[in-house]
Amino acid sequence: MNPLVVEVSATDGAARTGRVVTPRGAYRIPAFMPVGTRGAVKGLDSTDLEALGAEVVLANTYHLMLRPGADVVADLGGLHRFTGWTGHTLTDSGGFQIHSLRPQVDDEGVTFASVYDGAPTRLTPESAVEVQGLLGADIQMVLDVCATLPATPEVLRLAVDRTSAWAARARAHFDRVEVRPEGQALFGIVQGGTDAGLRAESAARTVGLDFDGYGIGGLSVGEPRAEMLDALGATVPLLPVDRPRYLMGVGDPVGMLEAVALGVDQFDCVAPTRAARHGSLWTTNGRMNLRNAVHARDDGPIDPVCPCPTCARWSRGYLRHLLSVGEPTAWRLLSIHNLTHVLGLMDQARVAVAEGTLTALRARTAAVWGA
Fold it and tell me: pLDDT (tens digit, 9 = 90+) per residue, 277-293?
């Protein structure tokens, strides 16, 4: 039985809103998942995320299996007990590291050099399932091959074939693994680059394995937005309506709303918090560079209409000072602001879908962000 139930309360074209019901509770869709790579969103703790209204947080399998080790996390009660996070957790499989770290990949799995000490580390579809079982997330992802775009047809074909073969192995092994939380869900991943035919083929092969939900991978990795949306348009209609649809690694405001319009339910990205740590702030008027000298004597908030505690209490001038002198407090306060903005955008998207006004929200957002 699928541990996740999608309850759709309203639609606007292909877009939908509602909630995903899980053994832990439920999370609302569309949803944005802040990224806590090593078990924490940089500069924030679990109480910050709860106060912001985040309902799902992503953690990174590759990093946590190296430090402190999946067995250590398991011994300390799993990710929720380990991190003090009471909401939902999703762990990625390590597939994105195949794209970003360029390890050695073969038909059986992948060999990484540890980013911590250079030691060789092997990950297979089966061991990725086992590691994520130990980590104890609510949702785990299959190991996949994410090709950097643009890519040749041969590279995309190999990525689709390996991803499909690995998904079948992961699906079979998932049912055999004894050490994992009861009700943990397993998501398959669709690859294929920007090739509509390969996307359709990968979707059919992945859906045929009957996963609890479906990730759409291999996008926002170098291709123009229009090509990303075309690939999404060729993929989402082929995914089951009763399962969550997750566009991996996309977190910019325009991209998310365009994907919501195509029927995507959830997103993750490091962009909001990474941008915040560099002084790039997301506001109702678009992007602001807090490092600019014009803000040095500004006593006003980052965004006068923002409801976050950072905007309620501290001025641009003070926050710019903290950033300029390398005070880590700036990371926390600015990350709180950017996450408030992106989580608020998901609130707006849910309302817009329910009211049939998503097209207008997309247009306003695109006008502000120049996209």
Answer: 999 999 999 999 999 99
Q: Give all strands (DSSP E) within 30-184, no chain letters.
A: 31-33, 35-36, 56-60, 88-92, 104-105, 110-113, 120-123, 139-141
pTM of the model: 0.97
- CA-to-CA distance for 255 and 232, rounded, in angstroms? 11
Q: What angle do CA 182, 69, 175 make, to 5 degrees?
A: 30
**Among 12, 48, 92, 303, which one carries the catalytic annotation?**
92
Q: Which of 48, 195, 265, 268 is catalytic?
A: 268
Q: Is the peptide bond before 30 cis (omega within 30 degrees of 0)?
A: yes
What digits encode the pLDDT tens for the residues 348-362?
999 999 999 999 999
Whether 106 is a known active-site residue: answer no
Classify domain 7-269 by CATH architecture.
Alpha-Beta Barrel (3.20)
Asked if the model's pLDDT at residue 73 lies above 90, the reply is yes
- Say if residues 183 and 2 touch (Cβ distance below 8 Å): no
Give me the mean pLDDT over the 43-52 stretch. 97
Residue ranges per domain, the chain?
7-269, 276-369
HSE, CB side, 13 Å, CA atoms: give it for residue 22.
Answer: 27
Residue 138 bears catalytic tag: no
C-alpha distances out from residue 57 to 73, 324, 368, Å: 16, 29, 27
> Which amino acid, residue 67?
R
Geometric angle at alpha carbon 88, from 191 and 137, rounded to 5°: 65
pLDDT in tens, 307-327: 999 999 999 999 999 999 999
